[in-house]
Amino acid sequence: MTIKGKAYIAGIFEHPTRHAPDKSVSQLHAEVALGALADAGLDRDDVDGFFCAGDAPGPGPASMADYLNLTKLRHVDSTELGGSSYVALAAHAAQAIALGKCNVALITLAGRPRSEGVATGTTPRLRDPNQPEAAFEFPYGLTTANGYAMCAMRHMHQYGTTSEQLAWIKVAASHHAQHNPRAMLPDVVTVADVVNSPVIADPLHRLDCCVISDGGGALIVVKPEIAKSLKRPPVKIIGAGETVKHLSGGSFDLTTSGAARSGPVAFAEAGVTPADIKYASIYDSFTITVLMQIEDLGFCEKGAGGKFVADGNLISGVGKLPFNTDGGGLCNNHPANRGGMTKVIEAVRQLRGEAHPAVQVKNCDVALAQGTGMQLGTRHCSATLIMERE
After folding, report:
1. Is 337 left (phi over 0), alpha (psi -120 to 50) or beta?
2. What's residue 141's pLDDT?
3. Would you call 94 helix, strand, or coil by DSSP?
4. Residues 6+ apart with CB under 8 A from 26
5. Which end of the chain is more exposed for a tag (fewer CB within 10 A), N or C?
6. What average pLDDT does this structure show over 342-369?
7. What pLDDT shows up at residue 140?
8. Is the torsion defined by CA of 86, 87, 88, 93 positive or negative?
9. Mean per-residue pLDDT, 229-241
10. Across residues 140-162, what is the average pLDDT?
11. What backbone torsions phi and psi does residue 229 show, to the nearest 5 degrees?
12. Helix ranges (DSSP H) in the chain
């Protein structure tokens, strides 16, 4: 069964806060849920499907369903795919709707890593001694930043990619963030600013890294009949793919992400090609994350990502592939250290024609959201979602 045209994103909401020391994670989940329902023109009692991931407090969806007082649930899903979870959950909601398991799906994300002082880039990646890989990796001090840096260094060695080319990704994000009043880093930066910022894990600089923020977001996914009865511009889900990429017993390519598998599946289901995509939301935990996913999704040849992203090619109104027009994780926010949710939200804004006028893509009728979760340099999850304006 395909999900093409079987479900629509009817409501979106991005929490306005970037620092929430006075709010609980549960409260943030509730606030984004109410915001998305209001955006869709629906009520809590309309919700019969609830979707969340590991950021939701409590065991799976049980505690949050209780806290949100969702009394009519007949389908739940708490799939955990790290930062790609919410790209995948949008597809899971579409699958459930297509199968008749629910009619109105609520998907919520929230977290407080900034308030809790979480330094995601430099803390040890492995914390549970029961993880099967712990004994082989923990002694070597793998962190998020140096794991991604390995990918960047290998890409540079293998394809001649430069720090200056990676810097263009941050530059593009900053050109978009200047129009977002809530962006954590709203100032436009130059290539020189990026490459002259302190090195965090060679070859990645401070400005190659995403921000750490509190906040959250929510989506409402509904069956077609409901979508067409609402007043919001209908955004149709037309294709999706997800996968896990791991070390494969040692035969691991550091320059390829899981998008090389999730992307083709999504494109095939949607019946479109990379050339049809007018706007792309690409997970941007680091600049190298964006470059590798752009290649793996087929927007350029493998190894040509450095040249593709350079000279403003990702800037809306300037380049061939406008990306992350809200400023993305590199400049706007990275709520709960799970940027997949905001990638879907900004793609929906673009398809509705509701992005900031300075970055709105003209005639935006097909958009893509791409998420990567966990450790790009070892094992990670990938999810791709393709949407279309009705």
Report:
1. left
2. 79
3. helix
4. 57, 63, 64, 67, 110
5. N
6. 98
7. 81
8. positive
9. 96
10. 94
11. -90, -10
12. 25-40, 62-67, 85-98, 134-137, 144-159, 163-177, 191-195, 224-227, 259-270, 287-296, 305-309, 328-331, 340-352
